[in-house]
Amino acid sequence: MSVAFRRESDEEHLEPKFEQPIAPGPNLVTARGLALIGERVETIEAAVAAETDEEARKVLLRDLRYWHTRQTTAELAPEPEKGEVGIGSSVRVRMNGAERTIAIVGGDEAEPGEDRLAFSAPLARALMGAAVGETVAFAGKADAIEIVEIA
């Protein structure tokens, strides 16, 4: 008998819908990051309430489950030690002769294009714990990055 005659429905051949993956490890956030998560939850809740299409609603509910999890597991990162790079720091560095300012934030707040890096990003990990005037290794180069200023 042909497969076409045995199939119960077209839905059995659709790709399964998985939950959004959550990064392993602690969900450390800055105060700004926690506020952004709260805003995201409120926005999605409003969209769910207004949505009439069932498929679109399912997508929104999936997003809402993700952001509710991020909100409930969020831990405010401890303040970095004075004069030391940590989560919540804005650090001016000199790399390859050019200066740039990088903010080290939680994963959900990260925007690499705007120089807001997640604390788990390789560059942020290289900077963590450093002080002004120090140089740190990065990408296999010793003394690749000089810490110019920490705010």
Automatic annotation (TrEMBL):
One function term, GO molecular function aspect: DNA binding
Transcription elongation factor GreA/GreB C-terminal domain boundaries: 82-150
TM segment ranges: none
Bias kind Basic and acidic residues: ranges: 1-18
Recorded superkingdom: Bacteria
Gene3D superfamilies: Transcription elongation factor, GreA/GreB, C-terminal domain
InterPro entries referenced in this protein's UniProt entry, alphabetically: GreA/GreB_C_sf, Tscrpt_elong_fac_GreA/B_C, Tscrpt_elong_fac_GreA/B_fam
UniProt-annotated stretches for the region Disordered: 1-25
Signal peptide segment: none
Gene Ontology annotations of biological process type: DNA-templated transcription elongation; regulation of DNA-templated transcription elongation
Matching PANTHER family: TRANSCRIPTION ELONGATION FACTOR GREA
The protein, known as: Transcription elongation GreA/GreB family factor
Organism from which the protein derives: Sphingomonas aerolata
